[in-house]
Amino acid sequence: MTLTTPDRESLSIPLVPFSARDRPSSDIINTCVHCGLCLSSCPTYRETGLEMSSPRGRIYLMKAVDEGRIGLESEVFQEQMSQCLNCRACEAVCPSGVQYGAILEASRAQIEQARERGARDPAAPGALPPRPLWQRALRGVVFGGLFKDMGLFRAFSASMRLYQRSGAQWIARKSGLLKLIGMADTERMLPPINASFTVPRGQIYPAEGERRYSVAMLTGCIMSTAFANVHEATIRVLQKNGCEVILPPDQGCCGALHTHGGDLDGGRELARRNIAAFEALGVDAIVVNAAGCGSTLKEYDHLLHDDPLWHERAAAFSRKVKDVHEFLAGIEFNRAGLGRLDVQVTYQEPCHLAHAQRITVQPRTLLTAIPGLQLREMHESALCCGSAGVYNVTQPEMAARLGARKVDNALATGARVIATANPGCALQLAGELRRRGEDVQVRYIVELLDESYRRGGEG
Ligand code: SF4
Ligand code: SF4
Question: What is the pTM (predicted TM-score) of this model?
């Protein structure tokens, strides 16, 4: 692997180093002993066979920037920080405990901050050429607008619903317009926005029977619009398990897209908002039904570790966060009320559940508790499906390869349902199944539990 940038060196232009703010930790980088045990877990390495597309290769690149041997302007560095899925499969298997996610997110933040410096003043020290204007505008709308203002997000979702139901989507697809503007693959991922696309917020749902727990639930952004039905199922399942469920007002997006995309300040702003919205409730747990959101909430303490006013509050908040499967499997959960579902299900493990939160047993415990349900394990269930936030947009080719690989593995089981627990995975799998014309459903585990309780109630 070449780690030099001869053009720049020969012109004596100084390399662009990591800056002090949000610098990837040298200690973490140097924890890597280059053993290579993570390589076979890495989806991009499995697809390409290239060392530089492996965790070890990417850590080498970070180390090279950290030690001043290459700069942030290195194309291979930027490409590899972008091509990484942040799936954290490498982190889960690393014997040295390298906190890969933390140094990846900091590296991406370094690139974005240097590009922003370049947008303000191209000649400023530590500046990189800015993103093209349209990309800056798009990031501004998405990161700075839609995902920060839930009112705006719901309005956007409503317009997407209109697009889908008015026939405009049919025309755009059939006319070839989407292909012409290069949006066909991205548009295919757009989920059907269901009828009840907002979950009432600021509400309390009482426990069914005796109240055993009081829990608060994150409603988030896309989960509260495209997956509002999953929220409703989650609330019913929690109620069946003796939980009073509180949806606090003033909560918002968890900030995962921001932190994964190099906008750590945007993520911090959303983290502070959520902490303030939840911390006074005195609940037993803050329950999350989306893997990516759960892992982000559990890491607010790390995100705000440099903020003396918020770090303790963030740590107290993160300690209360429970993934819904973790929560249910951790209590004496209501098995008696489950009714029969005669269905073959395969489980695809969301990366931010299996690797970032190390939750692998509990989803299977819940699935196999459903009478009649047959769980058929797929090959590579924990290998990333290629969704990874906006990865479909930034790395469409690799995303498509991984999506196809995952669906091949799922279909090989003969299951009629793919169970998951994350919106990105659900969209990625459903998009690939639709492309192939396969009549296989993608469902959240809580939806299957909800249906099973309903059948149990009928019996
Ligand atoms: S990240 Fe961990 S597993 Fe991978 S090469 Fe480094 S020490 Fe080994
Ligand atoms: S986070 Fe995932 S894609 Fe990135 S290096 Fe680790 S295993 Fe590979």
Answer: 0.90
